[in-house]
Amino acid sequence: MESGAKKWGFQGKQGLEAASTTTVRGYLNLLMGNINQDNCLTVVPLGHGDPSHFPSFRITPAAEDAIVDALRSAKHNCYSTTVGILPARRALADYLNRDLPYHLSPDDVYLTIGCTQGIEVVISILSRPGANILLPRPGFPLYEAWCAYNHLEMRHYDLLPEKGWEVDLDAVETLADENTVAMVIINPGNPCGNVFGYEHLKKIAETARKLGILVIADEAYDNIAFGSTPYVPMRVFGLTVPILTLGSISKRWVVPGWRLGWLVTSDPDGILQKSGVINSIAGFLNISSDPATFIQAAIPQILENTKEDFFSKIISTLRECADICYNRIEEIPSLTCPKKPEGSMFVMLKLNLSMLEDINDDVDFCLKLAKEESVIILPGIAMELKNWLRVTFAIEPSLLQEGLARVKAFCQRHAKKQ
């Protein structure tokens, strides 16, 4: 320090860097940094669920037209209201009302900057000294990051691979106490590729009601189901337990960069209002950023004009990719897939370390795979499940084939000699 200068009174926030490294982006940055730049192989991104880069997942022109129309109208260059503009919230309420036993109004819908901001909102407003929240293991690591940042105690319940990744409801009841505020479910499942059936969701709702906690339903992959289990939104059970639903256009419309999501309160009995949660959501959004106004304005047209054949094509492609992934993994003895994916864009694989040499754990596997084969896979420890792997199959089918062939070659090269 310069002689005689005053001591500086600022410093970086403690703990922020540690929290950020546990996110998907944190691990992806680590893995991308391990790519061998002298390797001429194309990088195969099996770690990040963003298929928008690939021709098979091109956005519908109807959505593009809606954005262009909203922008060229010159009516939406202004600030948005903090909860989102009314036409967008009204259109989303109508979209989400289908098959519900009660009615959502536009006042139940809050627009967010993707599901990411929705997670930030719900964790921030529920955090208080001594409180805890129940998170799935494996799950989506952004919940852990925001809990750590807000000093909200995390308690993990297991998803059971032998039961198709259903929630261990006995564990939920054991973990909860008088300071538990909520439980998070992710359906369709990231990272497991599972889809919860109606009866299981009903049991989750009944368990949460018994415990006096609300359910945070992360439905970023809503309607992305291609197996035998139909998709059922958790808000169907809003008469049983208060529900905060997180959703977005990012995945179903394949536009994650548009950053338009929603937080929806499903609570016909008014419990969230009485407890102050509704006021807290509005208060948080009053001091936060909003999605771009012109993208909000495009929502009614996007919802109305997107044809079913667009969704059918995306589902068909994901089903094909899920089949490729499952069948290719079956050919690799050191990797085990407990259940063929039925939804979302991911699958969890068990890493059988006893069959491999020079591989210490899941992180070591992913780092060496990135360096030797330029294939990016997320280590399970990022989802609180050590020695597992998360693979996304939402990429171009031909590139998926190539990437899994390289994973097979890598595993063969590191296989223990018999």
Explain what this protein looks like in three dimensions.
This protein is α/β, with parallel strands linked by helices and 418 residues long. The chain has two domains: 20-57 and 309-414, Aspartate Aminotransferase, domain 1 (Alpha-Beta Complex); 61-305, Aspartate Aminotransferase, domain 2 (3-Layer(aba) Sandwich), CATH 3.40.640.10. The chain contains 14 helices and 14 strands. The protein has helices spanning 16-21, 24-32, 61-72, 86-96, 114-126, 142-150, 169-175, 198-211, 271-274, 277-286, 293-305, 308-329, 362-373, 397-413; strands at residues 44-45, 109-112, 132-137, 153-160, 166-167, 180-186, 214-218, 243-248, 261-266, 335-336, 346-351, 375-376, 378-379, 388-392. The strands form three sheets. Strands 2-9-8-7-6-3-4-5 form an eight-stranded mixed beta sheet, sandwiched between helices. Strands 10-11-14-13 form a four-stranded antiparallel beta sheet. The chain has a two-stranded parallel sheet with strand order 1-12. Helix 4 packs parallel to helix 11 and helix 5 runs parallel beside helix 6. The termini are far apart.
